Amino acid sequence: MELEKLNKILEKYKLDKAPIMPVLQNIQKEFGFISRDSLISVSDFYDVPLQELYGIVTFYSQFKLVPSGKYEISLCMGTACYVKGAEGILNEITSVLGITDGECTEDGMFSLNNTRCLGCCALAPVLMINDNVYGNVKKEEVKGILEKYM
Amino acid sequence: MVNIKIDDINIKADKDKTVLEVARENNITIPTLCYLKKQNEIASCRICVVEIKGNKSLVPACVTKISEGMEITSNSKRVLESRKTNLELIISNHNKDCGACFRNKKCELQLLATEYKVNEDRFGKLKEFVQIDEKSPYMIRDNNKCILCGKCASVCKKTQEIGIIGKNYRGVKTKLGCAFDESIDDTSCILCGQCIMACPTGALIEKNNINLVNNAIEDKNKHVVVCVAPAVRASLGEEFGFPVGTNVKDKMVGSLKEVGVDKVFDVSFAADLTVMEESYEFIKRLENKQNIPMFTSCCPAWVKFVEKYYPEMTSNLSSCKSPNQMLGATIKNYYAIKKDIDPKDVFVASVMPCLSKKYEKDRGFPNEVDYKDVDVVITVRELAKMIKQKGIDFNNVDAADFDIPFSTGASTIFGNSGGVMSAVLRTGVETLTDKKLVKLEFDEIMITKGIKEVNYKLEEKIIKVAVVSGIKNAKTVIEKIKNKECEYHLIEFMACPGGCINGGGQPIVPSDIRNFTNFLELRKNAIEEEDKNLSIRKAHENPFIKELYDNYLKTPGSEESCRILHTKHKKD
């Protein structure tokens, strides 16, 4: 089923002059991330070196190489949040969940992304879990917040 | 043509040229780090900046085209200070353990830093130490020394069209690497070594095996034999300050003798052996109409390329081992027995202009049950380092000759693209037609060009041959064969553009020479010159070859030949 979807995307842009970006974007849209296997498929189908594709995928922040967890944590690393101690929050999340920026827990429950400004600097430091916003987060509160989702 | 001025000198030049090119033509030196002509013109290092009258900011000379009335200053105080600052910025993130670095004194960054008297610590260090990729037994990739010039990536992608290494991530996080940040050892790299040749610093380098040779020399029980490839004599001199294209054969052998090895043999001899076996195999395949076109198999990087990328074509490869492996096998199985030495006590060290020969010796051949054909392979660079470390005065060393019985070869030209083909034709034509060749130079396949095609008429039969060097060109030819767009009988393939004279184990040519002189032509001439002066120029007329067949191998393609000189290729 998944392979069928992938092949459809690969075929769709076969005649395009510059197919790589739309193909990668579509894979990301369809599966939520770009798996190692799908990147290898793109490389084989379009005869583009695997490294070149990896270079593209790691260059643009829109692409993800790991799947999102059931709960996606977005931690703001914008200027205001940063000076208000976002890095401490990041370390706390890492010590609780064992993941850092761009990673997903093994059970697929949590994934973590460092983001730029979320638009509510007055609440700095800010983090979001799916659509829920948490403001004025203190290091000591992180564990409690995460436990609500466990 | 347009009129410009560089440093107040009036110059007339072609309008399509860049400031850098015109300056160089007029003997004005502008330093570069990231520039590689026609391959890496990305102006990322900003070392070649110059001032142009009327321009507010400095411009990079490597990508700026000249235009009418342009007034360029290449050495104003502003230019020099700017270059110095740029160098200081680059070097701040560079791991400066220069003394221990293999590229010490040959590093382009170090040379420029010395020239511009930079303050290495002006900006501190911005980047953290990163893991060195040492997994491969043959090469090391050290991103702590990488200056992100991208030359390795461009030769891998553009010249070789393999694209194993390139830029990943973005901004300050940018780093050269492979897909999924894997070790180069886990990729489909064919170890051509062209990336090492392009690297301006010590970020890419072969694994150093000098100590293995030294240990063997000091081991009283070992009979140490050094085999030197044909292309080495044309380039080793560069490491000792001789001009490009100086043949230093006598000094090279003399130095090796002084280093203390027992025998020094010429791989040209084994090239003759390859010619005998390969011509025989080719004629047989031609008669049986089997696996034609036949691909030569002297180049292990090329063989690895076929095995990795075109496994369905491996049966087209000649079953011959490379000359180096053939010589190793002959030394252990014939020479050792004749000399009454246990083959296990013979240590074969080869000096190759090549990185992939390091890999080839480990790939495992069917005959290698109790001992390997070749024990260690070192590059030309390693040999030079070894000679220097041993305190040998290369310039004044006593000349010496290769040792008998593997002292001469008719096939020195193996080192050039087209050389294998020429040597095979010399023997093949005479064997097939019983006529003596009058002219031994097959000029049309010896020119410096990526793909060369020629038809030869042999007794009513047209033999179509091609000579291909560089993997990009090899890919083109293989695709054509697969699509039945062309027909050949015999094709010589070399992974490095120009053949072994440009191999991945050769002395690294400074950017300025690489970009602005035809250094390959010079190295090639040195080898052709030697070929012209040889008294025996056909493999089948080499008396030692005759002796080897009479006393041991019997005939090409015999049971013993097949056992020690041939192999089976993998279908990866």
Relevant terms:
heterodimer, A: alpha+beta, elongated, B: 572 residues, alpha/beta, Ubiquitin-like (UB roll), Rossmann fold, 19 helices, 35% helix, globular
Secondary-structure map with pairings?
The complex is a heterodimer of chains A (150) and B (572).
Chain A: H1 2-12, H2 20-31, H3 36-46, H4 50-59, E1 71-76, H5 79-83, H6 86-97, E2 110-115, E3 127-129, E4 132-134, H7 142-147
Parallel strand pairs in A: 1-2
Antiparallel strand pairs in A: 1-3, 3-4
Helix pairs in contact in A: 1-2, 2-3
Chain B: E1 2-6, E2 9-13, H1 19-25, E3 49-52, E4 59-60, E5 71-73, H2 77-92, H3 108-115, E6 139-141, H4 151-159, E7 166-168, E8 175-177, H5 194-198, E9 204-206, H6 210-218, E10 223-228, H7 249-259, E11 263-266, H8 267-288, E12 294-295, H9 300-309, H10 323-339, E13 346-352, H11 356-360, E14 376-379, H12 380-389, H13 419-433, H14 443-446, E15 451-458, E16 461-469, H15 471-482, E17 490-494, H16 511-516, H17 519-533, H18 543-553, H19 559-565
Parallel strand pairs in B: 1-5, 10-11, 10-13, 12-17, 13-14, 16-17
Antiparallel strand pairs in B: 1-2, 3-4, 3-5, 6-9, 7-8, 15-16
Helix pairs in contact in B: 8-10, 8-13
Structure description:
- The complex is a heterodimer of chains A (150) and B (572).
- Chain A is of the alpha+beta class.
- Chain A has seven helices and four strands.
- Chain A has a four-stranded mixed sheet, covered by helices on one side.
- The two termini of chain A are 31 Å apart.
- The radius of gyration of chain B is 25 Å and the shape is globular.
- Chain B contains 19 helices and 17 strands.
- Chain B starts with a strand and ends in a 7-residue tail after the last helix.
- Chain B folds into three domains: 2-75, Ubiquitin-like (UB roll); 98-107 and 114-206, 2-Layer Sandwich (Alpha-Beta Plaits), CATH 3.30.70; 211-565, Rossmann fold (3-Layer(aba) Sandwich).
- Helices cover 35% and strands 13% of the residues of chain B.
- By secondary structure, chain B is an alpha/beta fold.
- Classes of the chains: A alpha+beta (150), B alpha/beta (572).
- The A-B interface holds A 36, 39, 48-55, 58-60 and B 157, 162-170, 177-180, 187.
